[in-house]
């Protein structure tokens, strides 16, 4: 490993403007023991001097919860495991030590791995305790009071568009809705939102952005900054150059998956440039390599001063789209198992030794032998250098495609000039991603490095990350090992009998279209006072193609034979309907194409068995006698290639042949966007 070969460089000083390159022959700095003919490495020198001017101000490293429902299962973890996970994400000098938390402003629509509830389902409705993003922001602030908070909508409730699938026809309504969320965060949770976005990865509207700024100011929210447009660099950069009024109100240009590059117009705006969503890659060693490379190169190549990962923590069923694309994995609240993945420690290389408000040094951060470095200072004499030597095949992100490049072992000699000349030692933190034996070294503290007369050398191998810093505050914390992984319980029941639930949604149910919330049924004096109710009654302004039916999934994707039982209550007269289902094979952005075994009953007294959520593949149909506004018990039994159904304990249909899917989750849902209630759910 390159770490053994670091030392002060007794080399001639180099003119600051000049990059000296020479070959060290017969050197004993290589990976072999001193004196043994170690392989000579090409050497290059790099000068760090704050005196020649600073680069851009650093704005921090962050991650996204939402877009959507990516933290869904996290809230159901028992203590102490839940707090341990939160510590790894947010606690300073502990793990990822994130500077920024970006959350979805729930809009009741599907936003990748599920729906997140809106604070205003309907025009005359306000509730600032739905979902889990409020809770998550508070937990983040509890650990790091300095963390910056960003809100961004993916979807909007239907009433915003007054029937159109578009949020900009009534910009004052949309602005009022977003401002309500910001004010609610403060009033009910004492949370100050720092930045607000426009509409994730969809069109922006200049009139709306100006009105949003005006409305923010009118409500005393001058400190809330606007990010636009959370899509591509264009057309927002071009429009900002043309429209001086818009230029005045947009504070940050946020681009998604920029591939470490920016565009000329973005630079011409002189705005802060952020990669406001990036990464989105499976969190193994290659994902860590992707993250290490873009954390440096987004600045080195693209002048981006903040990089925000989608997503914060993979706390959603792994077989939903983009499974395990979080900085860490926590998808088993029933067992308590979680995994601190390599990207957490790659994050720490930057976050534990920098803070928003530090400045990058003005230096070309490309290493001669491939890879990159950034150097940052707090202006008070502290210096942090982060070096990465990720190879092409070991650092490919999910998008965009990565052009080929070469990285080879090399020696880097750094000259510290100006105020940094007085630095005598640097703390050293080291990671090496191992793609052969999975024996990666992650965020290991090495012996401090002596700086001699303002210079030092370091031998770099491929797929390494170094942090060299004057700060002594870095820590690699480890909680006790979490419990071992376990599949979802094979017997699971929920009667929803909870008077003051800590969250609005029942544990482990993952809504894929519609929103299912705890409900107190004041009109029922009997067994169904506490129920689960589907509450979205109009199709939201969508971000992807939500289903025409509502559905919430639960359980183990690999279930084959199962029995699902649930009490159901149709509220919509005449054409209302509900279902229970098994072997449900899809969700997230693909929810419209969901297959499975669906047992439907309708308010008109009929039933159906279908092989899909859309109800197009009818396997059986007939009369059931079910009506609205009455409780009934449905049971679905799937064994091998055969399924049967019971109504109120009596067989209603049987021997329906099932060809595929061969496995999947259990689910409940409704025929349309309609009120309906569920109780005493049981699956085995």
TrEMBL record:
GO terms for biological process: galactosylceramide catabolic process. GO terms for cellular component: lysosome; membrane. Keywords: Disulfide bond, Glycoprotein, Glycosidase, Hydrolase, Lipid degradation, Lipid metabolism, Lysosome, Signal, Sphingolipid metabolism. The keyword Glycoprotein applies. It catalyses: a D-galactosylceramide + H2O = an N-acyl-sphingoid base + D-galactose; beta-D-galactosyl-(1<->1)-sphing-4-enine + H2O = sphing-4-enine + D-galactose. It comes from the Eukaryota. Residues 511-684 form the Glycosyl hydrolase family 59 C-terminal lectin domain. Pfam families: Glyco_hydro_59 (PF02057), Glyco_hydro_59_C (PF21708), Glyco_hydro_59M (PF17387). This is Galactocerebrosidase. The lineage of its organism: Eukaryota, Metazoa, Chordata, Craniata, Vertebrata.
């Amino acid at each position: 490993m390159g770490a053994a070969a670091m030392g002060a460089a007794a080399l001639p000083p180099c003119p600051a403007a000049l990059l000296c390159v020479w070959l060290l022959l017969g050197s004993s700095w290589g990976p072999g023991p001193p004196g043994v003919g170690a392989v000579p490495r090409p050497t290059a020198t790099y000068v760090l001097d704050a005196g020649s001017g600073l680069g851009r101000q650093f704005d921090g490293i962050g991650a996204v919860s939402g877009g959507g429902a990516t933290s869904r299962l996290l809230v159901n973890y028992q203590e102490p495991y839940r707090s341990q996970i939160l510590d790894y994400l947010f606690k300073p000098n502990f793990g990822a030590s994130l500077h920024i938390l970006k959350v979805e402003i729930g809009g009741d629509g599907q936003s990748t791995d599920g729906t997140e509830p809106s604070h205003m389902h309907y025009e005359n409705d306000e509730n600032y305790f739905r979902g889990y993003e409020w809770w998550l922001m508070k937990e983040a602030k509890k650990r790091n009071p300095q963390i910056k908070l960003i809100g961004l909508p993916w979807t909007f409730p239907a009433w915003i568009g007054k029937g159109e699938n578009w949020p900009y026809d009534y910009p004052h309504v949309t602005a009022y809705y977003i401002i309500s969320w910001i004010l609610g965060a403060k009033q009910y949770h004492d949370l100050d939102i720092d930045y607000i976005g426009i509409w994730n990865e969809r069109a922006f509207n200049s009139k709306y952005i100006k009105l949003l700024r005006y409305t923010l100011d009118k409500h005393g929210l001058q400190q809330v900054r606007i990010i636009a447009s959370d899509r591509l660099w264009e057309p927002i950069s071009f429009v900002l150059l043309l429209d001086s009024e818009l230029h005045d109100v947009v504070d940050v240009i946020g681009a998604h998956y920029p591939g470490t590059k920016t565009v000329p117009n973005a630079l011409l705006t002189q705005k802060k440039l952020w990669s406001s969503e990036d990464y989105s890659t499976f969190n193994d060693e290659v994902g860590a390599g992707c993250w290490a490379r873009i954390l440096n190169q987004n600045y080195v190549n693209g002048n981006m001063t903040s990089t925000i990962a989608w997503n914060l923590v993979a706390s959603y069923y792994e077989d939903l789209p983009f499974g395990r694309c979080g900085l860490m994995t926590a998808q088993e609240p029933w067992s308590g198992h979680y995994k601190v993945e390599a990207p957490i420690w790659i994050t720490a290389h930057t976050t534990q030794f920098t803070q928003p408000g530090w400045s990058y040094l003005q230096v070309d951060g490309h290493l001669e032998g491939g890879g990159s470095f950034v150097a940052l200072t707090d202006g008070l004499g502290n210096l942090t250098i982060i070096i990465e030597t990720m190879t092409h095949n070991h650092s490919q992100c999910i998008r965009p495609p990565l052009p080929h490049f070469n990285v080879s072992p090399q020696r880097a000699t750094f000259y510290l000039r100006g105020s940094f000349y007085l630095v005598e030692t640097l703390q050293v933190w080291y990671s090496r991603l191992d793609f052969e034996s999975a024996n990666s070294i992650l965020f290991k503290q090495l012996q401090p490095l002596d700086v001699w007369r303002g210079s030092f050398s370091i031998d770099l191998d491929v797929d390494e990350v170094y942090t060299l810093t004057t700060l002594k505050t870095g820590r690699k914390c480890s909680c006790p090992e979490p419990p071992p992984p376990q599949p979802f319980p094979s017997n699971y029941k929920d009667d929803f009998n909870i008077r003051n639930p800590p969250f609005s949604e029942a544990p482990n149910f993952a809504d894929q279209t519609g929103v299912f919330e705890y409900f107190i049924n004041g009109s029922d004096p009997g067994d169904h006072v506490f129920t689960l109710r589907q509450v979205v009654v109009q199709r939201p302004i969508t971000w992807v193609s939500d289903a025409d039916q509502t559905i919430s999934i639960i359980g183990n994707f690999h279930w084959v034979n199962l029995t699902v039982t649930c009490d159901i209550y149709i509220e919509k007269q005449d054409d209302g309907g509900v279902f229970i289902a098994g072997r449900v094979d899809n969700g997230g952005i693909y929810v419209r194409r969901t297959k499975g075994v669906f047992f439907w009953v309708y308010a008109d007294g009929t039933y159906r068995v279908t092989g899909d959520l859309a109800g197009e593949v009818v396997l059986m149909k007939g009369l059931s006698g079910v009506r609205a506004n009455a409780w009934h018990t449905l049971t679905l039994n799937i064994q091998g290639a055969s399924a049967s159904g019971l109504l109120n304990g009596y067989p209603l249909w049987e021997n329906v042949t099932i060809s595929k899917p061969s496995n999947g989750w259990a689910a409940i849902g409704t025929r349309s966007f309609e009120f309906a209630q569920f109780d005493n759910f049981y699956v085995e």
